[in-house]
Amino acid sequence: MAIADVSELKQGFQLGEWLIDPAHGCFETKGHRIHIEPKVMDVLLCLAQNHGEVVSRGDLLDAVWQDVVVSEEVLTRCISELRTALNDTHRERKFIRTVPKRGYCLIVTPMPPAGAAAQAEPEPKEAQPPTAADSRVDNASESTIDSPMDSAIDKAYATPPPRQGKQKRTFFNRWIGQETLFALAFLAIFLGYKWGADKLQSDQPPGPQALLSQEVVSAGIGGVDQTSQALDVVVLPFVNISAEDDYFSIGLAEDIRNKLIRTKGLRVAARTSSEVFMGQAQDVRDIGKALNARTVVEGTVRMDDSRIRLTVQLSETENGHPLWAETYERNRVDVFALQEEIATDVVKQLAPALSETEDNAPKSAELTDSVQAYDNYLLGRFHWNKRTPESIQRAQSYFERAIELDPNYAAAYAGMADSILVLPKYNKGVLPDNVTTEVESLINKALSLNPSDPDANASRGLLAQLQEDPDTAEAYFQRALELNPNNSMALMWYGNLKSAQGLPQQAYDLFKSALKSDPLHPSIQINYLAALLMLGENQELLATAPYFHRVTGKQSALKFQLAALMQMGNFEAALELVQTEEFSGHLKRVMQLEAATALINLEQFSHAKQILDALPKAEQTQPQVLDLRAKMAAAAQDIDGLVAVGEQARPLFKGQPPSCDLAYYDRYMGITAWLQNRIPAAQSAFESSLAVYQQQCHDALPPHAETHAYLILTAKRQGQEQAAEQHYRDGLAAVEDAKRRGIGHASMWLAEVKLRAVFGELDQARAILASQRSVGHNLYGPLLNDPMLAPLLNQLYPTATGQAMHPDIADYQRQQIASQSLNMAKLGQ
Fold this sequence. Notes:
By secondary structure, the protein is an alpha+beta fold. Helix content is 54%, strand content 8%. A hairpin with a 3-residue loop joins strand 6 and strand 7 (103-106). Helix 28 packs antiparallel against helix 29 and helix 33 (746-758) packs antiparallel against helix 34 (762-774).
C-alpha cells in the first residue's frame, strides 16, 4: 500500500530497492548506505508526498525553503544529488522524471518498509597499515577527501533569474617583494606535492564553502583564450555508491584520465581542475564553461568484495546532451582490463580516428599485475591528498606495502618519493640533507621501471631544480612535455625554472599553457599572476586576480592584486583593499605591514608609525620591520631615525654571511651618510651594497640599478666623472638586459628614471614617466620618498602651461588627503 502522508513518510519508506530513512538522512540497499543532506531529503519527501504528479519548481522551493530566499540552481543541485544517490542515470530514469517547463515527478510509488527500520550507522573501522597476510585493505576512516578548491558551480537553467544570497569573502595573504617573489613561489609549489597526473599544488585544499556563480563560469580566464584550443574531455571523479571508501572510485577515474592523456591528439583536463567538482551536483554545461572543455565523462562505482559495477556517461557541454553511456560489470581482479576498455570506448566516441592510432605506452596491467598492490597504491594516493601529517604517514605505509607486493611497481616508488619529500612541510620541520638523495633514488627507480612516465620525469626535473642543477631540470621537463605536451605540472615547474632564470616572458608562455590544461589549479593561477606582475601587465593582472579569487576562494590572489596596486602607485586602492577584507593571525600582521608601506609612500608617517609601534616586541627587530622603519626615516629625511635603525640592525648581521638583507642595510647606511654630508662614507656603503646585490641577489634588479644611480650621485659630488659615467653605463646595461628578457615591472622603470635623472638625461626620464602614466602607473610617490632624488622632482615634474599642477602630483595629493581619514581600527589599531 502506497504512503502519501508526510508524517508516515518521515518514519521511513521503501523506494524501489532503496530503504529511505529520513530520520537518519540516508538511503540503504543490500547493506550499502548513502548519506544525503537534509534539504535533499526534504525535496524527496515533497516529491514522495505527491508521487505520480508533477511538482513545479516554485512549489518545491516554497515547500522546502519556505521564506528563505535561495536560487533555483540550489533545487537543481538537490535533484541531481538525488539522482546520483539513487543511481538514476540519464540513460534510464527510474525514479525522478523532469517534465520540461513544468517541474519534477517521482515515478516510483513509496511503499512501507519491507523490513525493520534502518539502524544507526556503525562506527567506521580505522585503517591500519596492511600486512602480508591481508587479503584486502581495510577501509580508511575518512569517507571523502576535501575538494581541491573552495569552489562549486551551481546548475544553470533557462528559467527566471535566480534569487541570489550573500557571500562573505575572506582573504589571508600578503604581497611579497619582487626580490623574493619567484623564489618563494617555487618553494611553495615544491613543498605542496599532490600525486596524480598533476602531482603538485601549493596549498592544502580548502573546504567547499565558496560558490562559483554563473557569472564567474561565463567570465573566462583573463589572458587565456577561451575560444581556441578547447579541452576535448574532462573526467570527473566517479561517484561512489558502495560502502567502500572513495579511494577506489577517485583512483579509478584518475587512471582512466591518465589513459586518455596517453592518446595523442586528445586534450584532457588535469586532475586538479576536474576534482573541483567532486561531491557537487553540477550541470555539465557549466563545467564545460569553467574548464573550456567540449565533453565530460562522469560515472558511478558500486563495489563489493569481488565485483565492480560502473556506469559511465559521456556528455556534450554545449547543450548538456548525453553522447554515450554504458554499464560495465566485472570481477575486481579485472580492474586493469576494465580501465583500458572504458578509456578505449571513450576515445572511440570522441575521435574514432584517434582510437585506431597505435599506443605503445605501458598499460596498467604491465605496470603491476597485483590487484592488491594497486589497491594499496590507490589508498596511498587517497590519503596523500588529505594533506595532514597523519594522512601522509599513512600514505607512505600504503606505498611501502604496494612496493612489497610488487617490487617493480613504478607508480608506488614515485608515490613514496613524494611522501618523503613533502612530510616535513606538514610536520613544520626542515627537509633533512639526506632526503633529496633518497628521493632521487626512488624517482630514478620509478623511471627505470617506466621511463615513459611524464609525471616521474617532471618530478625528477623538479628535484634537479631544487638541487640547483638547471640544465638537468630543463632536460627532464622537456622530456615530460614530449611525453605529454599538456602536463600542467611539467609546464608550471618549467615556468618556475624560467622565472628563476630571469626570463618572465618564457615563464608566462609556459604558465599560460598550463592554465589552458588546468584552469582551476590555484598554484598555476598564482604563478600566472606572478608572471603578469613581473611583465608589468598590471591592468590584466587586476582584471584576472579577482576572477581567480572568486573561482578558487584562494586568498593568494589578493597579494598579487595588492602588489599590482602598489606597483601602479595607487596606494589609496591598496589601503582600501587591506581595510575591506578580513584578516586574522599571521596574515593580519602581514597586511598591516603592507598598509604601513602604503602609508609611508603617502607620507602619512604618524599612521605608519602607529602600526609599527603596535607590533609585539619580539617582532620589532625583524628585518622587514626594520626595513620599513628605515624607509620611513629616509622618506622623512630623519637622520636620527636612520641612525637608530642602523644600531638596531647591526647586531643581526654580525658574524653572518652576506645576504640581501645586508644589502638593504648597507644601502640605508649610505643614505644616512649622504644626508649627513659624509659623501665618501656614503659611496663606500653603496659600493658594499652593490657588491652583495651582485653576489647574492641575482633577481634584485631594481635595487641593483638604483644603487648604481646613488653611486653616480656620490661620484659626481666628488668630481669623479669617469666613475659616474661607468656606473651609468653599468646600471643602464642592467636595465636594458632586463627589458630584453621581458621584465616590465614598474620598479624597473623607476630605476631607469633614477639613472637617467641623476646622470642629467631629464628629457628621457620625463618620457618614461609619461609612458608609465599612459598605462596607469604613477611613480611620483616613490620618487618623492627617495631623499637622494627629491632635489630633482621639480625638473622631473614641470607644470605645463595652463596647468595648475602636474597630473601625477595632483593624483598623489588627492590620495594623501584621502588617507588622512583612515579608520586605523580596521588596520589593527
